[in-house]
Amino acid sequence: MTQLFFSDYHPSERPTAAPQPLVIFGAGGLGREVLVLVNQLNEAGANWNVCGFYDDQPPATPTVAGLPYLGTAHDLNQTTEPLAVAVAVGSSASRAAVVARLTSPQLTFPALVHPRVQLAAAQRVALGTGCIIQQGCILTCDITLGRFVFLNLGCTIGHDAVLEDFCSLMPHANVSGAARLGAGVYLGTNATVIQGVRVGAGTIVGAGAVVVRELPASITAVGVPARAISKE
């Protein structure tokens, strides 16, 4: 895993450099929200030049939020120059599938962290490549986020928590201390995982559910306490 520390999260502390080209994969609502995040980072001192959007399902109009639609994953793989990509796909499984299709060695996937999210070196938070952390999130200390983890607005992550690759937390989801989410876990809006509980890979936890005991892989769980309703 790529481990990033305080200076990596806060680009305003870096020397001024030439604008870095970046595109957003995902031309829907989440893509537009990620564009807002990138603009907020630029206001705080980053230097991203957002060139446009890619998506395997073309949008209804040739532009999205004033920027051009540039093509599909196949088109993106044809790039001949280094290019940063933000993967704005909310579903854990779909995001993993997109990343698997983006194979060009020219592509990189920076971690994008809202400038008001506190991540000092003393917190010992490690991020994998491609993570996106939106406004209002709180991460305490000794936390590990895998590759392409997505934290939507206002999520909280407690001490010693581990979120493996491609986990997705929707707004105001809460992961308590020492909890562990397997690869591709999806927590719906306001879902909570209590202290020390494990959630198996690929499991979906419904909005507002509270996970109080271990959940196996590849199920959907809802309710308080969360109980399985289906196998994926």
Task: Explain what you see.
The chain has 2 domains: 6-113, Rossmann fold; 121-231, UDP N-Acetylglucosamine Acyltransferase, domain 1, CATH 2.160.10. It contains 4 helices and 24 strands. The protein has helices at residues 6-9, 29-43, 73-76, 92-101, and strands spanning 20-25, 48-54, 63-64, 67-71, 83-87, 107-108, 112-113, 125-127, 132-133, 138-139, 143-145, 150-151, 156-157, 162-163, 168-169, 174-175, 180-181, 186-187, 192-193, 198-199, 204-205, 210-211, 219-222, 227-231. A hairpin with a 2-residue loop joins strand 3 (63-64) and strand 4. The chain is globular, with a radius of gyration of 17 Å. The two termini are 28 Å apart. The model has no long low-confidence stretch (mean pLDDT 94).
